[in-house]
Amino acid sequence: MKLLVDNSGYHLLNLGDVCMLQSGVRRLQELWPAAEIGVLTMSPERLASVVPGVRALSASGKHMLVGAGTMLPGLGRLLGAQAGRIEHNLRVTVPKLSRAWTSGLATLRGQPTGDYHELQTFMKSTDAVVALGGGFLTDSFHSHAISTLRLLELAMALGKPTAIFGQGIGPITCPDLEAMAARVLPRLDYVGLRESLTAMPLLQRYGVPESRIALTGDDAVETVFQHRATTLGDAVGLNVRVADYSGMRRDLAATACEVVSKVATAKGARILPVPISLHQADSDIRAIQDLLALKHEDTAGIHDSEDVIHQAGRCRVVVTGSYHGSIFALSQGVPVVTLVASDYYRSKFEGVANVFSVGCEVVVVEDGFEKRLEHILGKTWDAAPLLRGPLLDSARRQIAMGRAAYDAFGRIVMHRGAP
Fold first, then answer.
1. Taking CA 323 as the corner, what is the angle to CA 397 and CA 331, rounded to the nearest 5 degrees?
2. Looking at the DSSP assignment, which residues form a beta bridge with residue 2?
3. Are 41 and 10 in contact, with CB atoms under 8 Å apart?
4. In angstroms, rounded to a whole number, what is the distance separating the alpha carbons of residues 314 and 213?
5. Are residues 103 and 123 in the same domain?
6. Would you give per-residue pLDDT tens digits along the chain (419 residues)?
7. What's the CA gap between 275 and 80, in Å, rounded?
8. 255 and 336 assigned to the same domain
9. Which one of 142, 233, 288, 408 is CB 3.0 to 4.6 Å from 314, fit for a cystine?
10. CATH number of the domain where residue 159 is located
């Protein structure tokens, strides 16, 4: 039994993505204990550390397999994005010829082909292809979304069962991404959603059969719940995501931090950083340290998802501009106040609030938001003990729904003839 796993973050520096990958792989391993699982990555050493027992397959090989310019490099200058669609259509309709052409062209150009051949060989012999959790099927991560949908369509052309799990889908407005999603998503064997407010209308519009869709919550919920704190904490957790795709400007983030400091002081509470992204480009650690002038030791012990789970568990409430900052808190009974500065993050956090039902407040960061943030944070702090039980019950329900979805896909794979 072989399984090919695509995922959200190939460098494994977003601890929310890492946690989803860990949870998803563990569920696949429980379905097929003897399976060889290949995971796409750009950091094989880190993959071996955070998800032991899987085979690292280079994401560079994925680019050669589905990326634009690897078959007809000169066509892109003439036709732009349409060239990539032409290449992909050739890969789907004449796969053997396309593989031979891509490999031969790379060799002529002096490019290494080892990663490409390894992934190509693994994919041909795999029994199923799965894209595990993420919020990348959206305009904000257009390139990743397109490449993953292309990979899934190639798998379909090879007759492989395909599924996505733990996915947040949308907003999608880019014409080429919308066309690709409308073509591929209805043909998936199974679709596991982490939220339904934004995703479900899109799937209905694309014609995805409801019988293949399940609302599961985020795959990371189970891992967080398993490592949950036994009692409610006494700190205010803080995450800020200053990045183009979040819409959070530095001045707005600074204002939010000032409000959090004011409320924490009034409640006699310390502030604990709850970083999710370790990427240099959008480092939560750097943003929090800079905005609050925290010392290095406040974040020095945070290296993996379990560290952040424990940090969130020491809090009574978490204020977060990162999606997984909310998941790492809510899944262990800690309420959150979320900071929204873009449509993308609005859909993320409104989806989380809908799935958990209670304990997740959404604050739009705009002119004059300070009073609303101060009021809601104070109110959430006071209500935290009453919210803990319902939040834990919601986490249990999501875990059950997620496991049922993986089991359903397992039956599909077995029915299609996998060992």
1. 30
2. 36
3. yes
4. 35
5. yes
6. 999 999 999 999 999 999 999 999 999 999 999 999 999 999 999 999 999 999 999 999 898 888 766 666 665 555 556 666 777 777 777 777 677 767 777 677 777 778 888 998 999 999 999 999 999 999 999 999 999 999 999 999 999 999 999 999 999 999 999 999 999 999 999 999 999 999 999 999 999 999 999 999 999 999 999 999 999 999 999 999 888 888 888 888 899 999 999 999 999 999 999 999 887 766 777 777 777 765 444 555 677 899 999 999 999 999 999 999 999 999 999 999 999 999 999 999 999 999 999 999 999 998 889 999 999 999 999 999 999 999 999 999 999 999 999 999 999 999 877 55
7. 38
8. yes
9. 233
10. 3.40.50
Residues 312 and 368 in one domain: yes
Give the single-character DSSP code of 212.
G
Structural domain harbouring 151: 2-217
> In terms of domains, do 262 and 372 share one?
yes
Residues 135 and 85 in one domain: yes
Report the candidate in 139, 136, 70 with the shortest Cα–Cα distance to residue 102.
70
Q: Which two tokens stand for residue 48?
A: 């071996």
Q: Is residue 60 part of a domain?
A: yes
- Please tell me what DSSP assigns to residue 298: G
The residue assigned the tokens 């569920």 is 27
Same domain flag for 77 and 184 = yes
Written as six digits, the tokens of 8 are: 């959200």
Q: Please check whether residues 228 and 183 belong to one and the same domain.
A: no
User: Do the domain assignments include residue 406?
Assistant: no
Same domain, 213 and 269: no
Closest by CA position to 220, among listed 121, 317, 135, 104:
135
